[in-house]
Automatic annotation (TrEMBL):
FAD binds at T45, S46. Gene3D superfamilies: D-Amino Acid Oxidase, subunit A, domain 2 (3.30.9.10), NAD(P)-binding Rossmann-like Domain (3.40.50.720). The lineage of its organism: Eukaryota, Fungi, Dikarya, Ascomycota, Pezizomycotina. This is Nucleotide-binding domain-containing protein. One of its GO terms (biological process) is D-amino acid catabolic process. It comes from Canariomyces notabilis. Pfam families: DAO. Keywords: FAD, Flavoprotein, Oxidoreductase. It comes from the Eukaryota. Its cofactor is FAD. InterPro entries: D-amino_acid_oxidase_CS, DAO, FAD-dep_OxRdtase. PANTHER family: D-AMINO ACID OXIDASE, D-AMINO ACID OXIDASE (AFU_ORTHOLOGUE AFUA_5G11290).
Length: 363
C-alpha cells in the first residue's frame, strides 16, 4: 500500500519530517507551504535561527535532542555541503544567576550544574576556575555544531527532492484543505502539521497556547574563532541574552540576542542591536581582536519569532474532519537541535495510524 502524506510546512520541522517519511518505503510525500527556504518573513522562523546545538531540555524530556545530536554530528563530519561545522560550545553560569536559582529565559537545562548532557556531548569538560571570566560561578565546554541555515534548509529541500518529495506553494486556511493537495491526485491519507508559530492561526488547530518569543540578532563578518560562548544571563534585562556563533561556509557570525515573549515586532530595534553587539564583544573580545564594537562589520540585522508552546512541543495524532493529522509544532528555541528526534516520533505515529509493524529506525 502506498500512503499519501501531506506535509503542510517547509520549516526545519516540516522538511526533516518530509525527508524521514520519504525515506520509508511505501510513503509518497507532498510538501505544501506558504514559505519556503529562500524566503525571509517574520511568520517563518527557521531561516532566522543561529543555529547551533546547546541542549535545553531537562533530562526527562531530552529524547528529541538525544536522538538528533548523532545525526547533526554525522552531517558536520561527513556531509560538508549540508552547511554544518564543528565548533566548541562554551556555557557560562554567572554567580548572580546561580544565586537566584537560574531563571534563564532561554533554556531549562542548558545552565544546570552537573547537566545530563555531559554524557551526550563529546569532549565535555567543566572549566577550571582559572579559565572562568570574572563574575562567573562555573562553566563548561563541549563539542557542538553550528548550522548555516541559509545552506542547510535548501540542502534539506534537495534531499527531499532526491527521495521523491514534491513541493507546492499554498496558504491553508484550514488544516483539512491539505488533504486535497497531494501531487498524486488522490486524497492524502495523513497530514503532518508542522506549521510552527502559525499553528495559533491555522483553522482546525488554532492553538492559543502557541506564542512568539522574539529573537533579535546581528550578523557580522567577524570570526568567532571556533568558540560559541553563551551565558546564563546579562545585566541588560531578563529578556536579553548573550550568544555568539559562527556559521559554516562563510555564513557570517550570529550575535544574539533577545527572548521576548508575545512580541511580534519584525523590525530590529537599534538600541537592542547596540546592546547585543556590546555584550558579544565584551564576552568574546576575540571577535574584534580587542578593538571594541566599532570593529564589527555588520552584514545585517534580523528578527525571528520562536514558536513557544505552553506545556512544550506538541507531537501527537488527531482525527480532524475524517483525516488523520500528526502534529509537530511548538519547538521554541530548539527546532534544529531536536529536529530528527521529533521527526522520528512523527514516523512512529504515521506507522501507528497505518498499522505498520515497528520499523528499525534509520536515525
Ligand atoms: P517554521 O520555520 O516557522 O516553519 C513553519 C512552516 O509552516 C513554514 O513553511 C510556513 O510557511 C508553514 N505554514 C504555517 N502556516 C501555514 C499555512 N496556513 N499554510 C501553509 N503553510 C503554512 N533552534 C535551534 O535548534 N538552535 C538554535 O541555535 C536556534 N536559534 C534560534 C535563534 C533565533 C533568533 C530564533 C528566532 C530561533 C532559533 N531557534 C534555534 C529555533 C528554531 O529556529 C525554531 O524552533 C524552528 O525554526 C521552528 O521551525 P518550524 O519548522 O517548526 O517552523
Amino acid at each position: 500500500m502506498t500512503d499519501s502524506l501531506l506535509n503542510d510546512s517547509a520549516g526545519v520541522s516540516g522538511l526533516t519530517c518530509a525527508l524521514e517519511l520519504a525515506k520509508q518505503k511505501g510513503n509518497t510525500v507532498t510538501v505544501v507551504a506558504k514559505h519556503m527556504p529562500g524566503d525571509y518573513d517574520i511568520e517563518y522562523t527557521s531561516p532566522w535561527a543561529g543555529a547551533n546545538v546547546l541542549p535545553m531540555a531537562l533530562s526527562d524530556n531530552s529524547r528529541w535532542e538525544r536522538r538528533t545530536w548523532p545525526v547533526l554530528r554525522r552531517l558536520a563530519a561527513e556531509v560538508p555541503e549540508a552547511g554544518l561545522h564543528v565548533q566548541t560550545a562554551r556555557v557560562l553560569r554567572r554567580k548572580k544567576d546561580v544565586a537566584k536559582g537560574f531563571k534563564a529565559v532561554l533554556a531549562d537545562g542548558l545552565f544546570m550544574l552537573d547537566p545530563w548532557y555531559k554524557e551526550l556531548m563529546d569532549n565535555f569538560r567543566e572549566l577550571p576556575a582559572s579559565e572562568l571570566p570574572e563574575g562567573m560561578h562555573s562553566g563548561c565546554e563541549f563539542t557542538s555544531v553550528c548550522i548555516n541555515t541559509a545552506i542547510y534548509l535548501p540542502w534539506l529541500v534537495g534531499q527531499c527532492a532526491r527521495h521523491g518529495v514534491r513541493f507546492k506553494r499554498a496558504v491553508l486556511k484550514h488544516i483539512s484543505e491539505a488533504a486535497n493537495m497531494s501531487h498524486t491526485g488522490r486524497k492524502a491519507d495523513i497530514i503532518i502539521n508542522a506549521s510552527g508559530l502559525l499553528a495559533c492561526r491555522l483553522g482546525g488547530v488554532m492553538d492559543k497556547t502557541v506564542h512568539p518569543a522574539r529573537g533579535q540578532i546581528v550578523v557580522v563578518r567577524n570570526e568567532a574563532k571556533s568558540i560559541m560562548p553563551t551565558s546564563s544571563g546579562c545585566d541588560d534585562g531578563d529578556d536579553e541574552i548573550m550568544y555568539v556563533m559562527q556559521r559554516a561556509l562563510g555564513g557570517g557570525t550570529v550575535l544574539g540576542g533577545t527572548y521576548t515573549k508575545d512580541n511580534w515586532d519584525p523590525n530590529p530595534d537599534p538600541n537592542i542591536a547596540v546592546r547585543i553587539m556590546k555584550r558579544a564583544v565584551e564576552a568574546h573580545p576575540e571577535l574584534t581582536d580587542g578593538k571594541g564594537i566599532e570593529a564589527l562589520s555588520i552584514i545585517r540585522h534580523g528578527v525571528g519569532l520562536r514558536p513557544v508552546r505552553e506545556g512544550g512541543v506538541r507531537i501527537e495524532k488527531e482525527l480532524i474532519d475524517g483525516t488523520w493529522v500528526v502534529h509537530n509544532y511548538g519547538h521554541a528555541g530548539w527546532g534544529y537541535q531536536g529536529s530528527y528526534g521529533c521527526a522520528e516520533r512523527v514516523v512512529e505515529l504515521v506507522d501507528e495510524i497505518v498499522g505498520r509493524s515497528k520499523r528499525t529506525s534509520k536515525l
